Amino acid sequence: MKLAILFTAVLPLMALAQPSLSLVSETADLRVPESALVWPQKSGGRLLVSEIDGAGTAVDGQGGVALLQLDGRLIKQDWLRGLNAPKGMAIHGDRLFVADLTELVEVDLSTAQIIRRYPAEGAVFLNDVTVDAAGLVYVSDTRTNRIYRLQQGKLQLWQQQILSANGLKATAQGLVVGAGKQLLLLDDSGKSRLLAEGFASGIDGIEPLPAGGYLVSCWVGLIYHVSAEGKVSLLLDSKGKFNTADIGYDPATQLLYVPGFNANSLQIYRFEP
Protein backbone atom coordinates (compact mmCIF):
# COMPACT_ATOMS: atom_id res chain seq x y z
CA MET A 1 0.00 0.00 0.00
CA LYS A 2 2.80 2.42 0.82
CA LEU A 3 4.46 1.65 -2.51
CA ALA A 4 1.24 2.43 -4.39
CA ILE A 5 0.87 5.76 -2.58
CA LEU A 6 4.46 6.72 -3.44
CA PHE A 7 3.89 5.84 -7.09
CA THR A 8 0.80 8.00 -7.41
CA ALA A 9 2.61 10.88 -5.70
CA VAL A 10 5.50 10.76 -8.17
CA LEU A 11 3.36 10.53 -11.28
CA PRO A 12 2.09 14.15 -11.24
CA LEU A 13 5.64 15.43 -10.83
CA MET A 14 6.79 13.44 -13.84
CA ALA A 15 3.86 14.71 -15.88
CA LEU A 16 4.76 18.31 -15.06
CA ALA A 17 8.36 17.97 -16.22
CA GLN A 18 8.89 20.10 -19.34
CA PRO A 19 12.01 21.12 -21.32
CA SER A 20 13.34 24.48 -20.18
CA LEU A 21 16.14 27.03 -20.60
CA SER A 22 17.99 28.85 -17.83
CA LEU A 23 20.35 31.76 -18.47
CA VAL A 24 23.99 31.05 -17.61
CA SER A 25 25.86 34.11 -18.90
CA GLU A 26 25.96 36.86 -21.50
CA THR A 27 28.79 38.17 -23.67
CA ALA A 28 28.45 41.83 -24.64
CA ASP A 29 30.09 44.07 -27.26
CA LEU A 30 29.89 41.71 -30.20
CA ARG A 31 29.30 43.24 -33.64
CA VAL A 32 25.90 42.07 -34.91
CA PRO A 33 26.44 38.39 -34.08
CA GLU A 34 24.42 36.13 -36.37
CA SER A 35 25.56 32.52 -35.91
CA ALA A 36 27.20 30.50 -33.12
CA LEU A 37 29.09 27.28 -33.84
CA VAL A 38 30.73 24.93 -31.33
CA TRP A 39 34.22 23.85 -32.43
CA PRO A 40 34.70 20.67 -30.39
CA GLN A 41 37.88 19.51 -32.14
CA LYS A 42 39.79 22.48 -30.78
CA SER A 43 41.63 21.67 -27.55
CA GLY A 44 39.26 22.34 -24.69
CA GLY A 45 36.54 23.33 -27.14
CA ARG A 46 35.95 26.73 -28.66
CA LEU A 47 33.06 28.77 -29.98
CA LEU A 48 32.96 30.58 -33.33
CA VAL A 49 30.55 33.49 -33.74
CA SER A 50 29.96 35.20 -37.07
CA GLU A 51 29.77 39.00 -36.88
CA ILE A 52 27.99 40.91 -39.64
CA ASP A 53 29.40 44.20 -38.26
CA GLY A 54 27.08 46.38 -40.31
CA ALA A 55 24.03 45.86 -42.52
CA GLY A 56 22.92 42.31 -43.25
CA THR A 57 23.21 42.86 -47.02
CA ALA A 58 26.34 45.04 -47.15
CA VAL A 59 29.27 44.09 -49.38
CA ASP A 60 31.77 45.98 -47.25
CA GLY A 61 34.43 43.50 -46.11
CA GLN A 62 33.82 44.46 -42.48
CA GLY A 63 32.33 41.15 -41.34
CA GLY A 64 34.19 38.31 -39.73
CA VAL A 65 34.28 35.55 -37.16
CA ALA A 66 35.10 35.91 -33.46
CA LEU A 67 36.74 33.17 -31.38
CA LEU A 68 35.41 32.58 -27.84
CA GLN A 69 35.77 30.11 -25.05
CA LEU A 70 32.78 27.86 -24.46
CA ASP A 71 31.92 29.87 -21.36
CA GLY A 72 31.49 32.95 -23.56
CA ARG A 73 34.75 34.69 -22.74
CA LEU A 74 36.26 36.39 -25.79
CA ILE A 75 39.60 35.04 -27.01
CA LYS A 76 40.11 36.89 -30.29
CA GLN A 77 37.35 39.02 -31.77
CA ASP A 78 39.22 39.56 -35.04
CA TRP A 79 39.99 35.87 -35.54
CA LEU A 80 38.84 36.27 -39.15
CA ARG A 81 37.86 39.48 -40.97
CA GLY A 82 37.23 40.62 -44.52
CA LEU A 83 33.81 39.02 -45.02
CA ASN A 84 30.55 40.48 -46.31
CA ALA A 85 27.69 40.14 -43.81
CA PRO A 86 28.63 36.55 -42.81
CA LYS A 87 25.91 34.37 -41.38
CA GLY A 88 25.71 30.57 -40.94
CA MET A 89 28.77 28.35 -40.52
CA ALA A 90 29.70 24.67 -40.55
CA ILE A 91 32.88 22.66 -39.93
CA HIS A 92 34.18 19.68 -41.88
CA GLY A 93 37.57 18.34 -40.84
CA ASP A 94 40.02 21.24 -40.71
CA ARG A 95 37.81 23.52 -42.80
CA LEU A 96 35.21 26.11 -41.86
CA PHE A 97 32.50 27.05 -44.36
CA VAL A 98 30.75 30.41 -44.03
CA ALA A 99 27.68 31.81 -45.83
CA ASP A 100 28.91 35.19 -47.04
CA LEU A 101 25.97 36.91 -48.76
CA THR A 102 26.45 35.58 -52.32
CA GLU A 103 29.49 33.34 -51.77
CA LEU A 104 30.36 30.26 -49.76
CA VAL A 105 33.73 30.91 -48.14
CA GLU A 106 36.13 28.12 -47.19
CA VAL A 107 38.53 28.84 -44.30
CA ASP A 108 41.53 26.94 -42.93
CA LEU A 109 40.77 26.50 -39.23
CA SER A 110 44.41 26.16 -38.27
CA THR A 111 45.42 29.50 -39.77
CA ALA A 112 42.11 31.41 -39.93
CA GLN A 113 42.89 32.19 -43.56
CA ILE A 114 40.41 32.19 -46.43
CA ILE A 115 41.31 29.41 -48.87
CA ARG A 116 38.62 29.80 -51.48
CA ARG A 117 35.40 31.61 -52.31
CA TYR A 118 32.62 29.82 -54.17
CA PRO A 119 30.16 32.22 -55.86
CA ALA A 120 26.56 30.97 -55.79
CA GLU A 121 25.02 31.80 -59.16
CA GLY A 122 21.86 33.86 -58.75
CA ALA A 123 22.22 34.08 -54.96
CA VAL A 124 20.98 37.13 -53.06
CA PHE A 125 21.06 36.28 -49.33
CA LEU A 126 22.99 33.14 -48.40
CA ASN A 127 22.03 32.30 -44.85
CA ASP A 128 22.90 28.95 -43.28
CA VAL A 129 25.42 26.17 -43.90
CA THR A 130 25.66 22.50 -42.98
CA VAL A 131 27.87 19.54 -43.97
CA ASP A 132 26.72 15.93 -44.21
CA ALA A 133 28.67 12.78 -43.33
CA ALA A 134 29.91 12.47 -46.92
CA GLY A 135 31.40 15.97 -46.83
CA LEU A 136 28.77 17.60 -49.04
CA VAL A 137 28.22 21.24 -48.04
CA TYR A 138 24.75 22.78 -48.25
CA VAL A 139 23.96 26.52 -48.10
CA SER A 140 20.53 28.17 -48.13
CA ASP A 141 19.41 31.38 -49.83
CA THR A 142 16.39 32.72 -47.97
CA ARG A 143 15.49 35.44 -50.49
CA THR A 144 15.44 33.14 -53.54
CA ASN A 145 14.01 30.00 -51.82
CA ARG A 146 17.04 27.95 -52.88
CA ILE A 147 19.52 25.48 -51.47
CA TYR A 148 22.95 25.12 -53.09
CA ARG A 149 25.31 22.17 -52.69
CA LEU A 150 29.11 22.09 -52.86
CA GLN A 151 30.33 18.83 -54.35
CA GLN A 152 33.77 18.07 -55.78
CA GLY A 153 34.73 21.73 -55.69
CA LYS A 154 31.63 23.00 -57.50
CA LEU A 155 28.83 24.99 -55.86
CA GLN A 156 25.61 24.33 -57.75
CA LEU A 157 21.89 24.82 -57.28
CA TRP A 158 20.45 21.72 -55.59
CA GLN A 159 16.88 22.62 -54.64
CA GLN A 160 14.57 25.54 -55.35
CA GLN A 161 11.08 26.61 -54.31
CA ILE A 162 11.89 25.83 -50.66
CA LEU A 163 9.92 28.72 -49.17
CA SER A 164 12.18 31.12 -47.22
CA ALA A 165 14.85 28.41 -46.85
CA ASN A 166 16.98 29.35 -43.86
CA GLY A 167 18.19 26.98 -41.12
CA LEU A 168 19.91 23.80 -42.30
CA LYS A 169 21.13 20.73 -40.45
CA ALA A 170 22.43 17.55 -42.07
CA THR A 171 21.38 14.42 -40.15
CA ALA A 172 21.50 10.67 -40.71
CA GLN A 173 17.84 10.85 -41.78
CA GLY A 174 18.37 13.63 -44.33
CA LEU A 175 18.62 17.41 -44.53
CA VAL A 176 16.50 19.25 -41.95
CA VAL A 177 15.40 22.65 -43.28
CA GLY A 178 13.69 25.61 -41.69
CA ALA A 179 11.33 26.67 -44.48
CA GLY A 180 9.35 29.66 -43.30
CA LYS A 181 7.27 28.47 -40.36
CA GLN A 182 7.74 24.77 -41.17
CA LEU A 183 10.45 22.29 -40.26
CA LEU A 184 11.05 19.95 -43.20
CA LEU A 185 13.15 16.84 -43.85
CA LEU A 186 14.58 16.49 -47.36
CA ASP A 187 15.93 13.18 -48.66
CA ASP A 188 18.76 12.80 -51.19
CA SER A 189 16.39 13.38 -54.08
CA GLY A 190 15.01 16.55 -52.52
CA LYS A 191 11.63 15.04 -51.64
CA SER A 192 10.34 16.74 -48.49
CA ARG A 193 8.44 15.57 -45.44
CA LEU A 194 6.93 17.80 -42.75
CA LEU A 195 8.58 17.34 -39.35
CA ALA A 196 6.83 20.10 -37.40
CA GLU A 197 4.82 23.28 -37.76
CA GLY A 198 3.18 25.81 -35.46
CA PHE A 199 6.07 28.25 -35.12
CA ALA A 200 4.98 31.87 -34.70
CA SER A 201 7.63 33.21 -37.09
CA GLY A 202 10.17 32.11 -39.68
CA ILE A 203 12.71 29.54 -38.51
CA ASP A 204 16.37 30.55 -38.22
CA GLY A 205 18.62 28.08 -36.34
CA ILE A 206 18.19 24.31 -35.94
CA GLU A 207 20.07 22.06 -33.50
CA PRO A 208 19.36 18.30 -33.18
CA LEU A 209 19.17 16.78 -29.70
CA PRO A 210 20.90 13.48 -28.85
CA ALA A 211 17.69 11.89 -27.54
CA GLY A 212 15.72 13.03 -30.60
CA GLY A 213 13.95 16.23 -31.51
CA TYR A 214 15.39 19.69 -32.02
CA LEU A 215 16.00 23.12 -30.59
CA VAL A 216 14.77 25.74 -33.05
CA SER A 217 15.14 29.52 -33.07
CA CYS A 218 13.12 32.18 -34.84
CA TRP A 219 15.03 35.41 -35.44
CA VAL A 220 12.32 37.64 -33.93
CA GLY A 221 13.18 36.38 -30.43
CA LEU A 222 11.69 32.90 -30.02
CA ILE A 223 13.24 29.54 -29.15
CA TYR A 224 11.29 26.29 -29.36
CA HIS A 225 11.70 22.68 -28.39
CA VAL A 226 10.50 20.18 -30.98
CA SER A 227 9.96 16.65 -29.70
CA ALA A 228 10.87 13.56 -31.69
CA GLU A 229 7.16 13.24 -32.48
CA GLY A 230 6.98 16.82 -33.81
CA LYS A 231 5.33 18.52 -30.83
CA VAL A 232 6.34 22.20 -30.68
CA SER A 233 6.68 24.01 -27.34
CA LEU A 234 7.96 27.53 -26.64
CA LEU A 235 11.04 27.78 -24.41
CA LEU A 236 11.93 31.47 -24.68
CA ASP A 237 10.23 34.66 -25.83
CA SER A 238 12.61 37.64 -25.97
CA LYS A 239 10.76 39.67 -28.61
CA GLY A 240 11.45 43.36 -28.15
CA LYS A 241 14.53 42.64 -26.01
CA PHE A 242 16.93 40.78 -28.27
CA ASN A 243 16.83 38.61 -31.37
CA THR A 244 17.48 34.89 -31.36
CA ALA A 245 19.46 34.24 -34.53
CA ASP A 246 21.32 31.08 -35.64
CA ILE A 247 21.82 29.09 -32.45
CA GLY A 248 24.61 26.67 -31.55
CA TYR A 249 24.37 23.74 -29.13
CA ASP A 250 26.92 21.68 -27.21
CA PRO A 251 25.36 18.32 -26.25
CA ALA A 252 28.28 17.54 -23.93
CA THR A 253 27.38 20.44 -21.62
CA GLN A 254 23.77 21.04 -22.70
CA LEU A 255 24.65 24.67 -23.33
CA LEU A 256 22.74 26.62 -25.96
CA TYR A 257 24.45 29.62 -27.57
CA VAL A 258 22.10 32.36 -28.80
CA PRO A 259 23.43 35.27 -30.91
CA GLY A 260 21.46 38.37 -29.93
CA PHE A 261 22.00 40.12 -33.29
CA ASN A 262 20.72 43.71 -32.81
CA ALA A 263 21.56 43.54 -29.09
CA ASN A 264 25.22 42.89 -30.05
CA SER A 265 25.43 40.13 -27.45
CA LEU A 266 25.57 36.37 -27.02
CA GLN A 267 23.35 34.66 -24.46
CA ILE A 268 24.28 31.24 -23.08
CA TYR A 269 21.50 29.04 -21.72
CA ARG A 270 21.48 25.63 -20.10
CA PHE A 271 18.92 23.32 -21.68
CA GLU A 272 17.08 20.95 -19.37
CA PRO A 273 15.30 18.27 -21.42
Low-confidence stretches: 1-14
On the 0 to 100 scale, the average pLDDT is 94
- Helices and strands, in order, run as HEEEEEEEEEEEEEEEEEEEEEEEE
Query: At the third CATH level, what is the topology name?
Result: Neuraminidase
Measured as a percent range, the helix fraction is: under 10%
The tally of beta strands, per DSSP, is: 24
Task: Give the CATH class.
Answer: Mainly Beta
Q: Largest sheet at a glance?
A: 4 strands, antiparallel
Task: Give the overall shape, derived from the CA principal axes.
Answer: globular
Number of domains: 1
Estimate what percentage of residues fall within beta strands: over 45%
Q: What is the tally of helical segments? A: 1
Structure description:
The chain has one helix at 2-16, and strands at 20-27, 33-39, 46-51, 63-69, 74-83, 89-92, 95-100, 103-108, 113-119, 126-131, 137-141, 146-151, 154-160, 165-171, 174-179, 182-186, 192-197, 203-208, 214-218, 222-226, 232-237, 248-250, 255-259, 266-272. It has one domain (22-272): TolB, C-terminal domain (Neuraminidase, 6 Propeller), CATH 2.120.10.30. The protein is mainly beta and 273 residues long. It is globular, with a radius of gyration of 19 Å. The strands form 6 sheets. A 4-stranded antiparallel beta sheet has the order 1-24-23-22, with no helix packed on it. It has a 4-stranded antiparallel beta sheet with strand order 2-3-4-5, with no helix packed on it.
